[in-house]
């Protein structure tokens, strides 16, 4: 780093940030506040969805949490800023719409289509993020660091690989079952399937 340059914690370390000011709040306080708010939100959602099946309650908590995270906490280097702009403006609202589809009876027909669409977006975005970092030899992180690499980069992002993959599988399974039911109903009743022109 050049003489007189401001020392900052970001990667790459030689990035010039002339207006950088150190954070006055500790990382422990920030993480505590963030995870505390997520916990309170999920408790409220859990209580608000009483009477619904476990799967619906978990999905509502997941999609509302994702919607808020995608809408509020996005940023990074150029490729990621472009990708995360899409995430913030598309995935965030789409997650909230998906949660709404699980709660509002008039929207229930859309729930698995929305679940599939938003989960594919999440999986694609996180796969792009992981692969970009791998191809750039982790230059945006401190490779191997217990907090920055293993917790922030690996663990938190792996959640957005595992849960969307499970949601994709679930949505496809439900949509295939419904299509099979419609096909068998049409076949047994002798009704031809409706064709659009």
Task: Report on this structure.
Helix content is 69%, strand content 0%. It is mostly helical. It has one domain (37-182). Helix 1 packs antiparallel against helix 2 and helix 3 packs antiparallel against helix 4 (111-135). The protein starts with 26 loop residues before the first helix and ends in an 8-residue tail after the last helix. The model has no long low-confidence stretch (mean pLDDT 85). Keywords: Isomerase, Lipid biosynthesis, Lipid metabolism, Membrane, Steroid biosynthesis, Steroid metabolism, Sterol biosynthesis, Sterol metabolism, Transmembrane, Transmembrane helix. It is found in: Membrane. Pfam families: EBP (PF05241).
Provide a concise account of the structure shown.
The protein is mainly α. It has one domain (37-182).
